[in-house]
Amino acid sequence: MTEPATNLLIFASQLCLHLGGRAVLDHVDVQVSAGEIVTLVGPNGSGKTSLIRLLLGLQPADSGSIWRRAGLCVGYMPQRLHVEAVLPLSVKRFLLLAGKVADAELHAVCQRSGIQPLLHKPLQSVSGGEFQRVLLARALLRKPDLLVLDEPAQGVDINGQQQLYQLIASIRTELGCGVLMVSHDLHLVMAATDHVLCLNTHICCTGHPEAVSRHPEYLKLFGGALEGMAVYTHHHDHRHDLHGAIIADGHHNCGHNHDHG
After folding, report:
1. Residue 191 CB: number of other CB atoms within 10 A?
2. Nearest-CA neighbor of 152 among 181, 176, 187, 126?
3. pTM (two decimals)
4. CA-CA distance, 165 to 211, in Å (whole number)?
5. Across the strands, what pairs with 33?
6. DSSP conformation letters of 137-171
7. Structural domain of 201
8. Domain contains 115
9. Which of 16, 30, 98, 220 is the most buried (most CB within 10 A)?
10. Block means of pLDDT (10 residues each) for the chain, length 261 residues?
């Protein structure tokens, strides 16, 4: 494989995977550069999580190659994480299970992810949106070059999803890390991604999110779900705190995409 450009973090070529006699991934290419957000979209069973597992080295591919930048540090946010209800675990203790971390570093990450008020709460008592931010903070404590986020907005309401995607985009800008994100809804994540790969065992289409959302292959997969739905983008000059309250600052200008039936 040709040596990739210097800003590339990970580069995979022609990945194939079969499970249970079925082709899960068929000659899939993917790459992520520093400062870039790449989003994988596709229907259930399309191979998104399997691709993530291959890229993380959790499972070998049947064929193909994966190049990772030397010393690459990855922060991983899994799709699901079950915590026993009877386990006496505060949010802070849960974060510290990831490894030794200085108080100042923990404080900075918690401030960045908006979970500072939650640190001493039982982990099981936080809401779905708060729990996803806790998982994001846990990934950030690794000081990652690459954030890998598998359905980061799962179990979060639509307003919370938009806020979480804004947060991910701002973290990318602040830290300059690459982000590889799995999402089931391109229209919600559109404003917070640079490049989209639409996966259904193979790469159906790839490119800028607005171009992918109009691509015939994407519409073939998701057209029924998108009927009667219009997408528009607007900009505003405020941001939200952890609880959804507006913090006006006059400088924050984020694009949003909204779906309307």
Report:
1. 19
2. 181
3. 0.80
4. 20
5. 8
6. HHHHTT--SEEEEESTTTT--HHHHHHHHHHHHHH
7. 8-216
8. yes
9. 30
10. 71 96 96 96 91 95 97 90 77 88 92 93 89 93 95 86 90 95 84 92 93 89 53 38 42 37 36
Res 4: pLDDT: 53
Residue 130 lies in a domain: yes
Q: Give the whole-angstrom CA distance, residue 109 versus residue 96.
A: 12
Phi, psi dihedrals of residue 200, rounded to the nearest 5° = -145, 70
Residues 6 or more apart whose CB falls under 8 angstroms from that of 249 comprise 237, 238, 239
Q: How far apart are CA 256 and CA 189, in angstroms?
A: 9
Give the model's pLDDT for residue 247.
Answer: 43
Domains of the chain: total: 1
Residues paired with residue 38 on neighbouring β-strands, in sequence order: 180, 195
pLDDT of 5 reads: 57
**Residue 158, CB half-sphere, CA atoms under 13 Å: how many?**
9
Q: Count CB-CB contacts under 10 A for residue 34.
A: 16
pLDDT at 157: 85
Q: Would 232 be classed as within a structural domain?
A: no
28-31: long-range pairs with CB below 8 Å, 24+ = 28/64, 28/199, 28/202, 28/203, 29/203, 30/55, 30/180, 30/197, 31/4
Domain harbouring 167, CATH code? 3.40.50.300
